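Continuing the series of single-chain predictions for the mutant panel. This is the parent chain; the variants come on the following pages.
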Amino acid sequence: MEQLLPFIQDYGFPVVVTFYLLHRVELKLDALNKSILELPDRMGGLSYSPNVNTKKTI
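Parent structure:
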């Protein structure tokens, strides 16, 4: 907490809070990106093949 005091005094409370929240979001986005990149490996041999004959007739 003592480390944040000079930043708050120099830049202001809203700026320090903004940088803190951006840092937290960045970490969460990195984790999300990593999990998305691991999806094909986790799914293994599963493949998606949409049924192209799904048109409804009136």
